Amino acid sequence: MGGKILKRFVPMVAIDVATKQEAIDLFDKLMVKPQPIVKIGMELYYGLGQVIVKEAKKRGFKVFLDLKLYDISNTVHRAMAAIGRLGIDFTTIHAAGGSEMLIAGLAGLEEGAKEAGVEPAKLLAITQLTSIDEKILHEQQHVDLSLIESVQSYARLAEKVGLAGVVCSAHEIKAIREVTGDDFLCVTPGIRPTHAIKDDQKRVVTPAQARIVVTPAQARIDGSNAIVVGRPITQSFDPVAAYQEVQKAFLNEEEEK
Hints:
The structure is a single chain. The chain is of the alpha/beta class. The chain is about 40% helix and about 15% strand. It is built from eleven helices and eight strands. It has helices at about 20-30, 40-50, 50-60, 75-85, 100-115, 135-140, 145-160, 175, 205-210, 230-235, 240-250; strands at about 10-15, 35-40, 65-70, 90-95, 120-125, 165, 185-190, 225-230. It has an eight-stranded parallel β-barrel with strand order 1-2-3-4-5-6-7-8, surrounded by six helices. Strand 3 (about 65-70), helix 4 (about 75-85) and strand 4 (about 90-95) form a beta-alpha-beta unit. Helix 4 (about 75-85) runs parallel beside helix 5. The protein starts with 11 loop residues before the first strand and ends in a 6-residue tail after the last helix.
């Protein structure tokens, strides 16, 4: 990579709560510098809609709207246009939908953003969910590829059609870097501090394990561009302290902006 330093973002905090008030309480607690990126998923968005995105943006947060679109191309195109008009920063689509669906989604996202006069969000492809392991892949999905090969295949497809990156396990970053370019983003959920439990995630690492460390002697090194952390922060007695602990472990402090 010729000494290129991979871009890293502040940690993304998954706001996986049931009510608007719980989400707003977390937004208000996390008004620190640098602000985390807040991840709004299906539970909140399906329950509250655009209002919860607006509440986050009103407080200055960048927003990762994680809806994992997966449908026929025309439907995905129209849905992504609506998402693009929200002025969010990241969103997701399933790579398993194929190239036609991915291209349609990207086009819709860019069209919606242009209509609203905002920058288009970075579109990330879901490779394999972090709840999927080799057993599920082979015995339930009947996929002949290994988990790593499946993730690599999806990453190559996403890059080929112009997506910004993928959502993947940190265990698969090195393999993805082998088949994609320097600027291709790897966003990794399933991150847990060493003292936290795994919950339902099967492929997890600590923030320090997920981060990239670049030295003058290194031409290239594996690493996450962004990590997603939920319950270890949001269910902590002190969410701000928990976030700052994760941020320090991932960004190693001198990377703070």
